[in-house]
Write a structure and sequence with these properties.
heterodimer, A: 452 residues, 12 helices, 15 strands, B: 227 residues, alpha/beta, Rossmann fold, five-stranded parallel sheet, two-stranded antiparallel sheet, 9 helices, disordered C terminus
């Protein structure tokens, strides 16, 4: 019967192919959305590992997580170096990684940090950062590149580059007088680390020392640190160098930049965007978190990365749900297309069914024939959709990785995906029951006599 | 009580007999064939075919009975367009073990039997056999249909105006071929046509209006019969 169904479909190639194509596209979308969802979750979760707490200025946990780890968005405030030192000195703390954001190089973010970053930062399942070329920064003006930065911009150890204020692709505020030298390149991690330039905090301080002479820190920092070098305090300037405002950068006036007056900032005046904390015992996480949240020196927020990630999923979940609903509807549209195609073919096929009846086909044969066609179309659509999805994944993998920072694995379908495929197959079969039932009724009433 | 389409007191056709049944359009001929085929059961009375009361059989049993014992040739559109000539001929063996068995006994395989029958019906050209059925002439299509009706040696062959789409010359050729094959397997042939010129070669010729007691309603197509 399936051979007959297949031959019958082959006879109506154009319609059959369009039907298969629409089902294939629907299946591809459904599975693609799902794959993207799963992989983005996994890739998000794999971005940070082994960090017990993330600390930043008082803000929402989600925001802190997004800017400190995923480099999405910007910190609203910085925290003082003194607070960082105080917390780093706690007995329960094993290590800390300070992070200072706010500068960029040709669209890639610059991360000011210390060598602790290369020592303690973990991603995926407890994997450490490794160098594929060069070495760790030895000098204040050394920079270690994420793999993608090096690949995209073609940098190698020994090259020098200039970082710019702000995170945009194009910045008018170049720190031209303070070039950095590439000292090393990190191995690919599939995380935002690949898209970052890592410099030392001291190096960043040097760069920003110039600026400090031309503007004030944000009012809070100014009040806290009472910067002695703020010459133009009467002219507030969006110049918190760690709080870049993409699209809001204004040209810095470097014309009167006096190199001789440039002094490295005193570390005590430094402020950072956030820092990662590793504890000696994970059990202490909650008490340390409470301590930091109630820290008296300045308002701070400490988050448990896993908990904050859950909050992100709650936010993202609504959008995901919508996306999944839309892709499910597209599948429904594809299957409805098949229903329409099968139903319209029934009229002209009543004679065919009468012939089959005359040679001994029972009504249930006729029923199975049409149902078989529906199942065949659905299965072909699913197979084509899956093949197209994998082809798309293979070809689009690097694009997704570079544009969205998503590493989409091209593995075997998961059980969840197989479940979705099965669901589409069952839906196709169920929809096939409609024309099959109609032709069954026809073949009972028509018998062998049809007038066309 | 709905009006009857056909009402026949008694009609007996002998085994191996070749009967010509003629009558005007809409007289209920096709309905009679449907009854013979077990597609429709009589509201009243009995119908015995091959010593079996088929009116008493269930729907599935009647379907099986038809598949096993009856071969059909229709007026037109006999063939499944997406199957090859040989596949079309083999079709009944896909629904009847009995006919498949007989075909294999006869020629070794169903396909071989199909080709043998096609040879007998002047369709021996292999090129002709491999062509899509839609590209065959009407006469060739009818011969393929005849081969399909005859495969597996059914006891009863029913032909419903199989020649009405054919030229006069082809008509006679077709009937002769059909006769020869029916005779060879000793099949009963019920041949419906309104072309009386063919009647002479049959064992018996029946005027349907004579045996059907339901008056023919003028211009009505209520019988559900193909015209």
């Amino acid at each position: 019967m399936f051979a007959l169904a297949f031959k019958s479909l082959r006879n109506r190639k154009a319609t059959a192919m369009l039907t298969v194509l629409s089902i294939a596209l629907a299946v591809m979308l459904l599975l693609g959305v799902d794959r993207l969802r799963q992989e983005s979750r996994e890739s998000f979760a794999a971005t940070i590992s082994g960090t017990d707490l993330i600390v930043g200025a008082r803000s929402s946990p989600v925001q802190l997580l997004l800017y400190s780890i995923f480099r999405i968005g910007n910190p609203a405030n910085n925290l003082s170096w003194q607070s960082y030192l105080a917390i780093a000195d706690l007995d329960q703390v094993a290590w800390t990684i300070p992070i200072s954001l706010g500068d960029s190089h040709r669209g890639f973010r610059v991360v000011g940090t210390t060598t602790a970053y290369f020592e303690h930062f973990r991603y995926a399942h407890d994997r450490t950062l490794t160098l594929v070329a060069g070495e760790l920064p030895g000098d204040d003006h050394d920079v270690v590149l994420g793999s993608e930065v090096a690949r995209k911009l073609g940098y190698q150890p020994g090259n020098s580059l200039i970082i710019a204020h702000g995170a945009g692709e194009v910045s008018f505020s170049l720190h031209e007088d303070q070039p950095f030298t590439v000292s090393g390149v990190l191995a690919p991690t599939g995380t935002p680390v690949d898209r970052a330039l890592h410099v030392t905090l001291d190096g960043l301080d040097d760069v920003h020392a110039d600026e400090v002479q031309h503007g004030v820190q944000d009012p809070l920092a100014a009040a806290l640190q009472a910067l002695p070098r703020a010459r133009r305090s009467a002219e507030p300037h969006d110049d918190d160098h760690h709080n870049e405002h993409a699209g809001d950068e204004r040209p810095e006036d470097h014309a009167d930049n006096d190199h001789h007056e440039a002094h490295a900032m005193d570390a005590s005046q430094r402020s950072i965007s956030a820092f990662l904390v590793g504890l000696k015992s994970r059990a202490a996480a909650l008490s340390v978190q409470r301590f930091i949240n109630e820290y008296e020196g300045e308002p701070l927020t400490a988050i448990l990365p896993g908990v904050a990630l859950q909050e992100v999923w709650v936010v993202v979940g609504a959008a995901e749900g919508t996306l999944r609903a839309v892709s499910a509807l597209v599948v429904l549209v594809g299957l409805t297309g098949m229903l329409v195609a099968l139903l319209t073919s029934l009229g002209e096929r009543r004679r065919e069914m009468a012939i089959l009846r005359s040679v001994g086909a029972r009504p249930r044969h006729v029923f199975v024939l049409i149902l078989g066609e529906a199942i065949l179309l659905t299965v072909l659509g699913i197979v084509l959709g899956v093949v197209a999805l994998y082809a798309g994944l293979v070809t689009g993998q690097s694009w997704l990785e570079s544009r969205l920072g998503l590493f989409i694995g091209v593995g075997w379908p998961s059980w969840h995906e197989l479940g979705l495929i099965g669901l589409v197959g069952v839906a196709g079969g169920l929809i096939g029951l409609v024309p099959a039932w109609r032709i069954y009724r026809y073949s009972l009433s028509d018998g062998m006599t049809i007038r066309i | 009580m709905p009006p009857y389409i056909i009402n026949i007191d008694q009609l007996a056709i002998l085994r191996g007999e070749r009967v010509f049944l003629r009558g005007p359009s809409g007289s209920g001929k096709s309905t009679l064939l449907s009854v013979l085929a077990g597609m429709v059961t009589p509201d009243e009375g009995r119908i015995r075919v091959l010593d079996r009361d088929i009116g008493a059989l269930g729907a599935a049993a009647r379907d099986r009975y038809r598949a096993d014992h009856i071969g059909f040739v229709f007026q037109m559109f006999n063939l499944i367009p997406y199957l090859s000539v040989v596949e079309n001929v083999c079709l009944p063996c896909g629904f009847s073990d009995r006919r498949r068995q007989r075909a294999i006994e006869q020629a070794g395989s169903v396909a071989a039997e199909a080709r043998r029958l096609l040879d007998h019906l002047d369709m021996s050209d292999p090129q002709l056999q491999s062509r899509p059925v839609t590209e065959l002439s009407v006469g060739q299509q009818q011969r393929v249909a005849a081969a399909r009706a005859l495969i597996g040696a059914p006891e009863l062959v029913i032909a419903d105006e199989p020649t009405s789409a054919l030229d006069a010359d082809l008509r006679q050729v077709f009937v002769d071929l059909l006769f020869a094959e029916c005779e060879r397997v000793n099949a009963t042939l019920v041949f419906v046509s309104h072309d009386v010129t063919l009647a002479a070669v049959f064992d018996r010729s029946l005027e349907f209006l004579d045996i059907n007691r339901v008056a023919l309603p003028v211009g009505s197509g209520q019988s559900g019969a193909a015209d």
